[in-house]
């Protein structure tokens, strides 16, 4: 007998028909003799609808109250899915994040899991019940409801799999695995049978929407066996694991991220410690930066450009603007009409010329590059947002056709 954790996203439980479809997938695993723990997201567009309702009341509600509101989306799903399984004649119980409980820090809207107390879940499994857990949420030490931010249900599922020492964590989505590019936009995208944690982590961090990067980080840390599968088709998915047995492909995937903005701090004195001051100010406000570019000094000054997520753009610009005198900078500029397009592959480390091939594809399509970032297994470029989909296509064609 195995312990299986299954996670179903919002599109998989968007209406009654789909909820019964998910119930059928759960029953299949249960009837094979497995202990089954299920994690679900809010139905369809529920989270967006709740955010819209909040803005009708208050344009800038507190993060604490938003967490209280948004957590209800998953609570609706777990109860409806439990009702479906009850109707089918199966023993089941639904649990919210605080009923488990899943203990987090107090960083509302972007909480981090600290520990999961598994006694309640194990007790229910011992009674041969299917356990359905609300994803995306937890509770802090003050018993306040918290949410885990973007991709929180993926993170919940992997964290539960690690805490429960599950045999496998199955992530069900509206695609049947991890592809070399988004199959909904790139016609000749190829499904991968398996992918390493590092490659999947890079793709997830760079905009691939199949898995969230925090969930992959957890899976790698605790060696959780993951498989990305289709909610609607019973076919083999993509295994995410430490060691791949297949021959390494040079590039494993092309990803696009539209949730990115660029900030440029202009005219900083060209002297030691200025870069530290810029990024220390941002770090103290929990603002993460990605691509960083510092210009060659001119007239004893330099410019520093970097990228942030869209939802942190306003805060980041305000912080830098308020501290221009401290930094000795002349001005701060920003733009949000950009996208990040990236290639990822462990095989890139030992093969020269990969970046040149990517840049050639963009040159042939007459797409201009604003910034470049590289590592052993990825190359990322910033380009105009209007060219992003085309860039993904031509880069994918260059490597996979």
Enumerate the spans where pLDDT stays under 50 for 5 or more consecutive residues: none
The largest pleated sheet is described as:
8 strands, mixed
Please count the beta strands (DSSP E, at least 2 residues each). 20
**Radius of gyration using CA atoms only:** 23 Å
DSSP strand content? 15-25%
Shape: globular
Strand order of the largest sheet: 3-6-2-1-9-11-12-10
Structural class: alpha/beta
Approximate helicity band: 25-40%
Number of helices: 12
What's this, in brief?
By secondary structure, this protein is α/β, with parallel strands linked by helices.
Protein architecture, described:
The model has no long low-confidence stretch (mean pLDDT 93). The relative contact order is 0.10. The chain contains 12 helices and 20 strands. The protein is 35% helix and 25% strand. Helix 6 runs antiparallel to helix 7.
Give keywords:
alpha/beta; single chain; 12 helices; four-stranded antiparallel beta sheet; globular; eight-stranded mixed beta sheet; about 400 residues
SSE topology:
Elements: E1 3-8, H1 16-31, E2 35-40, H2 46-57, H3 63-87, E3 92-95, E4 102-104, E5 113-116, H4 119-126, E6 130-134, E7 137-139, E8 145-147, H5 152-164, E9 168-173, E10 194-196, H6 197-205, H7 213-222, E11 226-230, E12 238-241, E13 253-257, E14 261-269, H8 274-283, E15 292-294, E16 301-308, H9 313-322, H10 324-327, E17 331-335, E18 338-344, H11 354-364, E19 371-374, E20 378-384, H12 388-400
Parallel strand pairs: 1-2, 1-9, 2-6, 3-6, 9-11, 10-12
Antiparallel strand pairs: 4-5, 7-8, 11-12, 13-18, 14-16, 14-17, 15-16, 18-20, 19-20
Helix pairs in contact: 1-3, 2-3, 5-7, 6-7, 11-12
